[in-house]
TrEMBL record:
PROSITE patterns: RADICAL_SAM. It comes from Paenibacillus ehimensis. Pfam families: Radical_SAM. The lineage of its organism: Bacteria, Bacillati, Bacillota, Bacilli, Bacillales. Keywords: 4Fe-4S, Iron, Iron-sulfur, Metal-binding, S-adenosyl-L-methionine. InterPro entries: Aldolase_TIM (IPR013785), Organic_radical-activating (IPR034457), rSAM (IPR007197), rSAM_sf (IPR058240). This is Radical SAM protein. Gene3D superfamilies: Aldolase class I (3.20.20.70).
């Protein structure tokens, strides 16, 4: 498997003299054959600025920094694919930080690109090729014409057309999971926030956060426009906003009004779940699904990354438990990172957390972060590192009733319950 690198102009090459390597945390490591899959459709290959690739010289067997004016290359995976290793690299300038993306090890093998990853879900719904640009433009034009004064639709049109956000795009295509952002503020200061970063963070946020408070009527219009089929999902809590539960009053009013008008579809919230009282109110208003973002079930790791304001991981657990007890299908949006998530103590803590909260689904999401910055922020490893592939196997064995996936699924029992509701009228 040949190392892949980029020249100063961004052109990609494979190096016949070097075997490609990966990284697990700070450790450069060999890539095993069973860790590789062909580059998935929808993936993007990118150069890593201010880095140098590291490989094994095939003649000498020595691990070396590849000479020349070249940079390391990584793959950005589409949703449904879980990263097993980072690219093998060292920084040429340690003061520089990488843009906030989830870089995956890539090599050239058997005449094609391969990545260190595993498919953990069916990628079809979230494949970018299924979002036709012409159809999307027509959908945006139609809805903006129909709802001329709705600021939320105007905001989402930029997310769909400018950022190519598939969830926002779904809102204009009336399909699958659509977006309804509501909050410009947050009760956490996430180190890797993709919508808001301090001026001195070193890495700019790749998205712009919404800067207004939508009215209940604006939210209701977006929800009703999307909830037109039994299988549709509308979701509070998007990458372009803060914590949605800070706007609990608006969400509660909107859910009640929407459910007064229709029983179609499902209402989801993506949340940090720290504001337990607010979450209880949202659950009681008629929530169907709740996906809670977390990076760890260990307090010191969680606090280092999320920097929670006025809540703790214990509040998150209480929110999940309350929602599960009320019949809400709960999941976690698990931000994973090779060399950290697969630590012994992290695995043990997450298994117990999942059992205590009665989780139904773990949605695996590759953490978008500069690796060196993240590793310097969090606690050091205390136990063995198992590797991402073995970690996934352990989860499947220890949590047989928890689905490992990448996006929201509607369990059969919830679908059947909703079907009976619709039949009753």
């Amino acid at each position: 498997m040949n190392l892949v690198y980029a020249d100063r102009d961004g052109n990609l090459f494979d190096h016949p003299d070097y075997t490609g390597l990966g990284r697990s945390g700070e450790m450069v490591t060999e890539i095993m054959e069973d860790e590789l899959i062909p580059l998935p459709e929808g993936a993007t290959l990118v150069s890593l600025p201010d880095t140098r690739p590291v490989g094994v010289h095939k003649r000498t067997g020595e691990m070396q920094v590849v000479p020349g004016d070249v940079t390391a290359v990584g793959a950005l995976l589409p949703q449904s694919f879980t990263r097993l290793l980072l690219p093998g690299y060292v920084k040429a300038d340690k003061s520089k930080v990488l843009p906030l993306f989830g870089y995956t090890a890539v090599v050239w093998k058997d005449g094609g690109f391969y990545v260190a990853a595993e498919a953990c879900d069916d990628p079809e719904r979230w494949n970018p090729r299924n979002c036709d640009p012409d159809e999307l433009e027509l959908g945006v034009k139609r809805i903006l014409g129909e709802y001329k004064d709705n600021r939320l639709f105007q905001h989402l049109s930029n997310c769909a057309l400018g950022y190519e956000c598939l969830t926002a795009s779904n809102t204009f295509l009336n399909r699958w999971e659509g977006a309804v952002p509501v909050s410009f503020s947050c009760n956490a200061g996430c180190f890797g926030c993709i919508s808001e970063q301090p001026d001195d963070s070193g890495f700019p946020a790749p998205q712009t956060r919404m800067n207004f408070k939508p009215s209940t009527e604006e939210v209701v219009q977006v929800m009703l426009e999307h909830l037109k089929t039994p299988e549709s999902i509308i979701s509070f809590g998007q990458g372009c906003e803060g914590e949605p539960s800070t706007q609990a009053k608006t969400i509660i009013e909107a859910i009640r009004e929407v459910r007064r008008r229709t029983d179609l579809g499902y209402i989801n919230i993506n949340t940090n779940a720290g504001l337990t009282d607010h979450i209880r109110g949202i659950v009681d208003a008629g929530l169907d699904l709740m996906r809670v973002s977390t990076i760890s079930a260990l307090d010191d790791h969680y606090n280092a990354y999320y920097k929670p304001r006025g809540y703790t991981l214990r509040n998150v657990e209480k929110s999940l438990r309350y929602a599960a007890d009320k019949g809400v299908v709960t999941s976690i949006n698990y931000l994973i990172f090779p060399g950290v998530t697969d630590r012994e103590e992290e695995i043990e803590a997450m298994i117990e957390f999942a059992r205590r909260t009665d989780l139904k689904l773990i949605q695996l999401r590759n953490l978008n972060i500069d690796p060196e910055s993240y590793l310097s922020l969090i606690p050091a490893a205390r136990g063995e590192r198992y590797g991402m592939k073995q970690m996934l196997d352990i989860f499947r064995e220890e949590l047989p009733d928890v689905v490992l996936g990448s996006y929201t699924h509607i369990p059969d029992e919830l679908a059947e319950r909703r079907k009976k509701q619709l039949q009753r009228g």
